[in-house]
C-alpha cells in the first residue's frame, strides 16, 4: 500500500518537479487576460483517476489532498524499499514523510497517510490565463521563467491536466528561432521563448501529449462523504 501511495503521489507531483524543454519569458497565452480568480467551470471537488486523491478547486486555490489507511502484517513492512521503521511510524525517503502506524491487538499494523499540497494560488509566482476554453496555469521557476500547465475540460465533466512541453526536434524543424538556451537542472537543454500569439498557437499544437492526468468530479451519491477529507 505504501509503495502504491508513493508511486501515485510522486507520479502526479512529478509534473511539478520535472523540467520541460520549453519555458516562457512571460505568462502565456500572449494577449490573453490575466485572471484574478479561477473560472466557475473549473471549480469543484475532483478525484484523480489513479488513486483516491481529492482535488479542491476554489475561486483562488487548487489543493490536492491524499488520505490512505491500510491494515498490514508487520512482516510485510520489512520489504518496503526506501523506507525505515521508526518509533510510531514508517519514514519514506522518497516522500520525505512519516507514515503514522498503530499496532493492533491481533499483531497487525494500521498504517495511515495524509498529505495536503497547494498546487496553485494567486501570488507573484503563479498566474492564470484562459484561451479557447482551456485554463493555463503559469508557474515562475527559480530562473524567473514560466513553466506552463494546461487544464482542459472534457465532455464527461472531467478535467485533463498536462504540462506544456515540446519534443527536442521541435526547435530544429519549426519556425521558433528567436529563443535563448540554458542547461536545466537535469542536464538537458531548455529553450526560453517569448512567442507572439501565432507562434504560441504553433507551440501548443505541437506539444507532447503523452503524460496527461485526468481528474473527475466527485459523485457524492456513489462515494460516501466520510471518505473525503475536508
Précis, in short:
This protein has helices spanning about 1-15, 75, 170-175, 195-205, and strands at about 20-25, 45-50, 55, 60-75, 85, 90, 95-105, 110-120, 125-130, 135-140, 145-155, 160-165, 180-185, 190-195, 215. By secondary structure, it is mainly beta.
What do you see in this structure?
The protein has 230 residues and is mainly β. The chain has one domain. It is 14% helix and 41% strand. The chain contains 4 helices and 15 strands. The protein has helices at residues 2-17, 74-77, 170-173, 197-205; strands at 22-24, 44-48, 54-57, 61-73, 83-86, 89-92, 97-103, 108-121, 126-131, 134-140, 146-153, 159-163, 179-183, 189-193, 213-217. The strands form 2 sheets. Strands 5-6-7-8-4-3-2-15-12-11-10-9 form a 12-stranded antiparallel beta sheet. The chain has a 3-stranded mixed beta sheet with strand order 1-14-13, with no helix packed on it. The longest helix is centred in the first third of the chain and has 16 residues, at 2-17. It is globular, with a radius of gyration of 20 Å. Residues 1-13 and 220-230 have low confidence and may be disordered.
